[in-house]
């Protein structure tokens, strides 16, 4: 499994709903009118905001073990 970090700048319209400790989210990033819209949604929670700038961070690699409940 690989994880990539994202950095957002000039965030506005932040909405967070019912963030659980461990849940899989589906992420969508779109650009409209000079701002990126970030939306992460799971069965029970969501995060949504607009950001002027977005950048990628270095990836890191994880290998799942038999007791690893963070990744499926």
From TrEMBL:
It comes from the Bacteria. This is Uncharacterized protein.
């Amino acid at each position: 499994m690989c994880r990539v970090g994202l950095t957002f700048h000039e965030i506005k319209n932040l909405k967070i709903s019912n963030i659980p400790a461990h849940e899989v989210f589906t992420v969508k990033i779109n650009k409209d009118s000079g701002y990126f819209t970030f939306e992460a949604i799971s069965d029970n929670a969501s995060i949504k905001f607009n950001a002027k700038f977005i950048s990628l961070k270095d990836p890191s690699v994880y290998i799942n073990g038999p007791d690893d409940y963070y990744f499926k």
